[in-house]
Specification:
The structure is a single chain. The protein has 1 helix and 5 strands. With about 70 residues, it is mainly beta. A hairpin with a 4-residue loop joins strand 1 and strand 2. It is elongated and about 50 Å long. It starts with 10 loop residues before the first helix and ends with a strand.
Length: about 70
Amino acid sequence: KKEEKKKKTTLQDKVLSSLIGKDVTVFLISGTRLEGKLLDFDNFTLAITAPRGRSLVYKHAVATIIFD
């Protein structure tokens, strides 16, 4: 009997998926504040667009993400 493996959707994936295309404020552990729209994400990074251009941020550098 062949069993299908189901990938469990994490809380992080659910939240980030709901934020794609929306305005977010990201605080990095260095204290840097980034504001813009969340473009996409994967297991290790976030892609954010802002008035000054696009940013690729490693998740391990993120302290907090604020959203409405």
